[in-house]
Structure formats: C-alpha cells, structure tokens
C-alpha cells in the first residue's frame, strides 16, 4: 500500500471519528430546536440537511430576539437587547442563493447578539455541509444565550450550569484520588474507651477462683452485655461500607476498558469528577447514554477525549519518512546527511503543541540549509 493511500485512510478515519463524536451534540441540539420551535423535523441523521437552507435557524434567531425583547420590557434583564431586522427566505432551496442569504443573515444576527467569532461558521460551511462541527458549536452557544431570556436550553447547557453552580458554591471537595471503583464513605473510628461505661468488667481469674466459677460468671455476663459495634474489628480498624456504583461510574469503567490499555491513568476523585492523565475534568451523563467530558468551554465524548491522550488511537499515528535531524548530525558527525528516498519509516505521534507539520517541515529545511552552507 502506497503512502498516499495510507494517508487517505488515516484522514478518512479522522473524519469518521469526528462525525461520531458529534452525534451526542447533534442529538441534544436537534431535540432542543424541535422543542423550542414546536416542530418535529430535525434528527441526528438529517441534522445538516434540515438546516442547510437557513430557514430553521433564522426562525430560531427571531424567536430568541422576541423573547429577549419581552424580557427587557418586563424588567427581567438589564442587558441591552439589540434590534436586528432581516428577511428570511422561507421557500429557499438547499444550495441556492437564498439559502446562502439566510445563513449570512443568521450570522450577522449572531454577531449582534454576542456570539463569539471563533464559533461562527461560514455560510458555505452550512450550505455545503463542510463545517458541521462549527455549526454545532455555534448552535450550542446560541442555546446559552437563549437560556438568559427564559428559553429552556439544551441538555449540555443545563449540565454546564449545574457544574458552575457546584463550583461557585464550593461543594466540590478535593478528596484522595483512587482508581475507578465504588466509592467508600469513611466511618468515624471508635475507641474502646467510648464503650467502656456500658461494657461490663471482665472478671479477673485468680488462683483462688476455680475454672467452673469463672465460666459461670462469664456466661451470666454474656446474656446482658451488649455486642460491640460492627464497625470495630479486633485490630481497631473500622470497616468501610461499600456503596453502589452509579451508572456514570459503570459507563466510565466500560469505556476505559475499551479504550485504555492502562486503566490506572483514569482515577475517580468524586461523583462526576475524574483525573484523566493527570488532569481533573468533569464527566456527565447526557440522556442516560452519552458520557461527556467538560473541556474548556465545550464538551467532548469520553472515548474521543481518552483517545486524544493515548497512543492507542489509530487516528493519532502517521507514517512519514524519517529525515536526518540536528541531533543525528551531532551524535554521528562522521555520517553524512542523506536525503535518499529509502530513508527509514517510523511512527509519528501527534504532539500537543499547535505547530503544524508544515511549520515543522519548514523549520527542518531551514536547519538543513544552514548545515549545507
């Protein structure tokens, strides 16, 4: 198989993985738009097809603006509500000029209402379905804006609000991190002195006492003496009652089994909070089946988040030709630099910095030119 075919296959895998990761977000947004506009049109399968003519998103923006103006008039918000008037071509067909006009009007409205430019798609990105992820992120930001004016937001926005309230109230307590397992609630340890007033004194056997008399006294005391608490053991260590694992813990464990080779890299801190590769993140269950991770200001599926931090993901691996590096030149100065086509192939793992492969290649060429000169 040629390197071009390998590269095309890797690109196809990346696109397929990105599409799979958008399914929970599309499902959440489709349900939200249908509920807000009181329609039953959008599904995960036809998400982009239902929106590409721009009619539904224009209607959604007009509804949010109307709610915002009513909120302002009733004194329920102190925010300035911009007045944006635009025409919506309701009979626009997909990939037509009118569809592009609707998309552009929607984008201008979003800019006036404070949607960040980083999550705004291009009109062609919606019409030609080339920017599905940006469309999803833009609509999710729109859901956050709609929540300010009394419109029920998408499920992910509700989870964000719950996490923010939990953080602001200080209810998130730092606890000892451990491997994913059912949590334990510590039981206060009791000492024998605490129970000494209620426990009878054990008779001391002397030489004058006969074994029969001591045994009879012990049997009488056993009928009246209370049994020691179950939390005490002979070594004085309290037992820790095991609590039942939540559905979230079970799903996280299942995903960790499927994705990770070393499950010790993910640890449970508290309910809904985990340490993954040394980074504390919030994990939530969306609609009872999608395990989502709070990443910055957005969301990601747990499968994709784990694969991004581990080499086991095939989309992280690229096969390229190994070129002589600066370290190679200094480690073996007697060996001349070679640019022959039969150079050694190796696996290159995507790094976590922002420089692209083209920038790295340009830097390598600059070093190569400096050495040649």
From TrEMBL:
SUPFAM superfamilies in the cross-refs: Calponin-homology domain, CH-domain (SSF47576), GAS2 domain-like (SSF143575)
SMART domains in the cross-refs: CH, GAS2
Domain GAR: 239-313
CDD domains per the UniProt record, alphabetical: CH_GAS2-like (cd21204)
Region (Disordered): 167-203, 215-247
UniProt KW keywords: Cytoplasm, Cytoskeleton
Subcellular location(s) of the protein: Cytoplasm, Cytoskeleton
Signal peptide region: none
Pfam families: CH (PF00307), GAS2 (PF02187)
Feature: compositional bias, Low complexity: 169-188
Gene3D superfamilies with a match to the protein in the record: Calponin-like domain, Gas2-like domain
Entry annotated with the keyword Cell division: no
InterPro entries for this protein: CH_dom, CH_dom_sf, GAR_dom, GAR_dom_sf
Biased composition (Polar residues): 189-203, 216-240
Domain of life of the organism encoding this protein: Eukaryota
Domain Calponin-homology (CH): from-to ranges: 23-146
PANTHER family recorded: GROWTH ARREST-SPECIFIC PROTEIN 2, TRANSGELIN
Family as reported in the entry's similarity comment: Belongs to the GAS2 family.
Name assigned to this protein: Growth arrest-specific protein 2-like
Native species: Limulus polyphemus (Atlantic horseshoe crab)
């Amino acid at each position: 198989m040629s390197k071009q075919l390998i590269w095309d296959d890797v690109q196809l895998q990346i696109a397929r993985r990105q599409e799979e990761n958008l399914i929970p977000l599309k499902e959440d947004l489709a349900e939200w738009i249908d509920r807000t506009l009181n329609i039953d049109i959008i599904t995960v399968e036809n998400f982009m097809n239902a929106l590409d003519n721009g009619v539904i998103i224009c209607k959604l923006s007009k509804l949010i603006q109307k709610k915002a103006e009513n909120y302002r008039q009733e004194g329920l918000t102190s925010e300035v509500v911009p007045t944006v008037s635009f025409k919506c071509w309701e009979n626009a067909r997909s990939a037509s000029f009118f569809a592009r006009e609707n998309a552009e009007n929607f984008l201008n409205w979003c800019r006036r209402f404070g949607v960040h430019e980083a999550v705004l798609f291009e009109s062609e990105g919606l019409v030609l379905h080339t920017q599905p992820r940006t469309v999803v992120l833009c609509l999710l930001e729109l859901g956050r804006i709609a929540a300010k004016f009394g419109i029920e937001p998408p499920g992910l926005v509700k989870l964000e609000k719950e996490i923010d309230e939990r953080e602001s109230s200080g209810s998130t307590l730092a606890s000892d991190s451990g491997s994913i397992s059912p949590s334990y609630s510590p039981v206060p340890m009791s000492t024998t002195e605490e129970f000494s007033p209620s426990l009878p004194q054990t008779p001391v056997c002397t030489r004058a006492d006969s074994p029969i008399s001591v045994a009879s006294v012990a049997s009488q005391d056993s009928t009246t003496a209370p049994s020691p608490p179950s939390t005490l053991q002979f070594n004085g260590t309290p037992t820790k009652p095991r609590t039942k694992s939540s559905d979230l813990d079970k799903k996280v464990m299942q995903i960790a089994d499927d994705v990770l080779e070393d499950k010790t890299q993910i640890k449970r801190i508290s309910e809904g909070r985990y340490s993954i590769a040394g980074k504390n993140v919030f994990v939530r269950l969306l609609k009872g089946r999608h395990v989502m991770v709070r990443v910055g200001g957005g969301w990601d599926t747990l499968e994709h988040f784990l694969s991004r931090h581990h080499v086991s993901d095939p989309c992280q691996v690229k096969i390229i030709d190994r070129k002589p590096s600066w370290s190679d030149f200094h480690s073996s100065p007697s060996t001349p630099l070679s640019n022959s086509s039969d150079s050694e192939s190796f696996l290159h793992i995507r790094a976590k910095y922002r420089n692209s492969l083209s920038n790295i290649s340009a830097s390598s060429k600059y070093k190569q030119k400096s050495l040649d000169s």
